[in-house]
Design a protein that fits this description.
This protein is of the alpha/beta class. It has one domain: Dihydrofolate Reductase, subunit A (3-Layer(aba) Sandwich). The chain contains six helices and eleven strands. Strands 1, 3, 4, 5, 6, 7, 9, 10 and 11 form a nine-stranded mixed sheet that branches. It comes from Ogataea haglerorum.
Length: about 200
């Protein structure tokens, strides 16, 4: 069965993830981690899929979307309206862009014979909706825990809840090894005024 992972960077302890639709930081190493984790597959004949909300899709500059090397799935309550607005862009990229109205229907649109892993990549509304309504579809949470002494304004948060527990570091290391990324990332990192560390949360 194809694994669904939720991947997010959040400011602990309140798990803030954004302000006015933007990331509150620009961490190059964390962005590289996101790209490599969501792109790399153990089976070179397969690809991964990234599932995002409409606002997240629209926040990506057009020249950078769809995210390369991955099947992009946009979730929206109004599929016909989205297709009306972005029909040329969707058609241009063929099977690399799909549109669905829920995570469950998104999984049904994907050819699971060629998809290795599915990543939910945001934003906050989608994260929280998936965790609240369909947690059984999610295998793991890949959480980058961000810390800083600076005062950061946040208006978007992820509600992880009591269903998930942070795992020992070896779980994260084993996951990276399974993707051929064992020696590419350090678990603890420092950049600018931020400290950040990579973790896996599993269902209790």
């Amino acid at each position: 069965m194809t694994k669904v992972s939720l991947i997010v960077a959040a400011l602990v302890p309140k798990y803030g993830i954004g302000y006015k639709g933007q990331l509150p930081w620009a961490l190059k190493e964390e962005m590289r981690y996101f790209r490599r984790i969501t792109t790399q597959t153990a089976d070179k004949n397969k690809k991964n899929a990234v599932v995002m909300g409409r606002k997240t899709w629209e926040s990506i500059p057009e020249r950078f979307r769809p995210l390369k090397g991955r099947v992009n799935v946009v979730l929206t309550r109004d599929v016909s309206s989205f297709l009306g607005r972005y029909s040329e862009e969707v058609e241009k990229h063929g099977d690399d862009v799909k549109v669905a109205d829920s995570l469950r229907s998104a999984l049904q649109t994907l050819d699971m014979d060629i998809i290795e892993e599915v990543f939910v990549i945001g934003g906050a509304e989608l994260y929280n909706d998936v965790l609240r309504t369909t947690p059984e579809l999610v295998d793991r949470l890949l959480v980058t825990e961000v810390r800083t002494e600076k005062e950061l304004e946040m208006d978007a948060f992820i509600n992880i809840g009591a269903l998930w527990r942070k795992q020992d570091p070896h779980v994260w290391k084993s996951y990276l090894a399974s993707k051929g990324l064992a020696n590419e990332f350090s678990q603890d990192n420092y950049e600018a005024d931020f400290r950040f560390s990579y973790h896996i949360y599993a269902r209790c």
